[in-house]
Amino acid sequence: MRIVVIGATGTIGSAVVAALGSHVIIAASRRRAQQRVDLSNPGSIREMYRAVGRVDAVVCTAGEAAFAPLSELTVDDFQLSLSSKLMGQVNLVRSGLDQLADGGSFTLTSGVLARLPSPGSAAVSLVNAGLEGFVRAAALEMPRRIRINIVSPGWVAETLKAMGRDPAEGTPAAVVARAYRESVEGSGNGSVIEPSGS
């Protein structure tokens, strides 16, 4: 199985690559990867697909979104969040349909702030909830037995540690990665997968 992992060099992405190790992985990110791609640029997404050719699955663990108090979020902050994390992943699906093999799958990423917002999460919560709605609706229209799901992780232990917080409050990246593997190898369609376990 040929799988493109966008965000493959990040904390979650590298764990996903390890979890899917028995497959042929094409690592994509803005830097330090086999294939460069900028999610905020639809042309870059199309070029990535031209470069990698036919694939069996697309996994995205990338996308930027601004986190700040609502009173401080600017139009540019919202635009970044919309063009990168939300429309970047939407465009991965739109541009990738013709590149995906019959019965293939897309796995996108939202996050816990879609359902459990916090002060400062207005932009992030907006795009995460929008992505989950997109996946549920898009699943009804996928051609050729293609599936689409989204993983909604909470705080990742390694990220908390890097922030100087208690990693015990988060889920290890390797555990989060199992949810992505479940999406790629399973039969679910239109699902919001919340990683759990240890």
CATH superfamily: NAD(P)-binding Rossmann-like Domain
Q: pLDDT average, as an integer?
A: 94
Structurally, the number of domains stands at 1
Report the biggest beta sheet as strand number plus sense, adding barrel if it closes.
7 strands, parallel
The CATH topology label is Rossmann fold
Helices, by number, come to 6
CATH architectural arrangement: 3-Layer(aba) Sandwich
End-to-end CA span: 27 Å
Q: What best-fitting shape do the alpha-carbon axes yield?
A: globular
Q: What is the radius of gyration computed over CA atoms, rounded to a whole number of angstroms? A: 16 Å
* Structural class based on helices, strands and sheet pairing: alpha/beta
Low-confidence stretches: none
The strand count comes to 7
Output the CATH class name. Answer: Alpha Beta
SSE pattern, N- to C-terminal: EHEEHEHEHEHHE
The assembly state of the depicted protein chains is single chain
Topology:
Blueprint: E1 2-6, H1 11-19, E2 24-29, E3 35-36, H2 42-52, E4 55-60, H3 75-96, E5 100-109, H4 122-138, E6 147-151, H5 157-162, H6 173-185, E7 192-193
Parallel strand pairs: 1-2, 1-4, 2-3, 4-5, 5-6, 6-7
Helix pairs in contact: 1-6, 2-3, 3-4
Verbal overview:
β1, α1 and β2 form a beta-alpha-beta unit. The mean pLDDT is 94. It contains six helices and seven strands. With 198 residues, the chain is of the alpha/beta class. Helices cover 39% and strands 18% of the residues. A seven-stranded parallel beta sheet has the order 3-2-1-4-5-6-7, with helices on both faces.
